[in-house]
Amino acid sequence: MKAIVYRDFGTSDVLNVENIDKPTPADNEVLVAVRAAAVNMFDWYMVRGKPAFFRLILGSGKKPLGVDLAGEVEAVGRSVTRFKPGDHVFGTGRGKGVRSKAGSFAEYVSTPEKTLAIKPRNVTFEQAAAVPVAGLTALQGLRDHGRLQRGQKVLINGASGGVGTFAVQIAKAFGADVTGVCSTRNVDMVRGIGADHVIDYTRENFTAGATRYDVILDIVGNHPWSAVRRVLTDSGKYVIVGGPPARAIPLMVLAPFTRGKLVLFIARAKPDDLGLMRELIERGEVTPVVDRSYKLEETSNALRYVAAGHTRGKVVVAINRPEESA
Ligand SMILES: NC(=O)c1ccc[n+]([C@@H]2O[C@H](COP(=O)([O-])OP(=O)(O)OC[C@H]3O[C@@H](n4cnc5c(N)ncnc54)[C@H](OP(=O)(O)O)[C@@H]3O)[C@@H](O)[C@H]2O)c1
After folding, report:
1. Hey, which of 155, 240, 241 would you mutate to test ligand 1's pocket, going by the most ligand atoms within 8 Å of its Cβ?
2. What is the reported pLDDT for 54?
3. Ligand 1: which residue has its CA nearest to atom 38?
4. What's the pTM?
5. Residues flanking ligand 1, CB < 6 Å
């Protein structure tokens, strides 16, 4: 089967399409014929080998790439109970995280049952592949770490990107009053996916405004805590999703002294949360925003586009079945 692999760390040019052995599912695994995979910043960090501990864990030699996927179940291991051949599924294709031997930029992935859920019926494979990492990050950030309640004010900094477009829609579905922060060219799109208010960061700095927020979900990480703090309510939470990796360590040191107001977290692959995302999508409350779609052979271009940091929603790689591309 065809798969994206890389050996040396570097830029997107290190990626190759190679023929590798089709995986065989272990007892707890599901073999998925991948129809689409989505690109995440995480993939870029893996290729760069930064932060440096990725290099230690990944080592030299041939490495797979890709986490998010949607596809069709081809076979299941002996102890799998939730799926059968022919099911359409979505989820994450890296059951063992960074050390996983599988990557979703491939024609087939064998992944533990617990990393998958049945795909929402009303969206394409490409839209479904866009959901797992970005959708679960937005969901867990708002619900578990922000404790967002109906009627509360939430601000999403980075509302036009992969995580942000899910966060705006999930916050609306939870009944919040949503402010999205994005650049001029994305104002209409962010309003179109449900934001009640939009702040154009090229004209206005949200930390200098008069509004105070119950939850700030920060996907960009471009304002100091001292500035963000002044636009939080007394019980408000500042939930940090992303930003420059070098910013995370000082914030981790600071967090215990903020009375629980400043929270950093890493999203976790939970099948129940994938199930909730499916429900939100099938009810029409969340619609994945796909910016661009690339072919498997063009994965390095897709990665380069995401690494530049100006996507509008998610970037996906559509993977043809061999019989379709013949
Ligand atoms: N904690 C976790 O578990 C977790 C999970 C997933 C991702 N992350 C992290 O989250 C971050 C972003 O993820 P993502 O996939 O959503 O990124 P993304 O899709 O690449 O986001 C890019 C978007 O950010 C916007 N943007 C750039 N500068 C901005 C600014 N100053 N203010 C507001 N918006 C701005 C861009 O719009 P313009 O081009 O128009 O400016 C673009 O639409 C990364 O650091 C990633 O590592 C963390």
Report:
1. 241
2. 83
3. 310
4. 0.96
5. 40-41, 133-134, 137, 157-158, 160-164, 181-183, 185-186, 201, 219-220, 222, 241-243, 265-267, 306, 309-312
Which residue's CA is the nearest one to ligand 1's atom 4? 241
Task: For strands 290-295 and 262-264, give the pairing.
Answer: unpaired
Q: In a mutational test of the pocket of ligand 1, which residue from 98, 133, 304, 311 has the highest number of ligand atoms less than 8 Å from its CB?
A: 311
Whose CA is closest to atom 10 on ligand 1?
242
Q: Which of 220, 240, 263 is the best mutation target for the ligand 1 pocket, counting ligand atoms within 8 Å of the beta carbon and taking the most?
A: 220
pLDDT attached to residue 96: 56
Atom 2, ligand 1: residue with shortest CA distance: 266
- How many whole angstroms separate alpha carbon 173 and alpha carbon 184? 25
Q: Which atom of ligand 1 is nearest to the CA of 267?
A: 3
The pLDDT value recorded for residue 99 is 65
User: Residue 307: which pLDDT band, with cuts at 50, 70 and 90?
Assistant: very high
- Nearest partner of 23 among 12, 36, 8, 33, judged by Cα: 33
Domains of the chain, earliest start first:
2-131+288-325 (3.90.180.10), 134-264 (3.40.50.720)
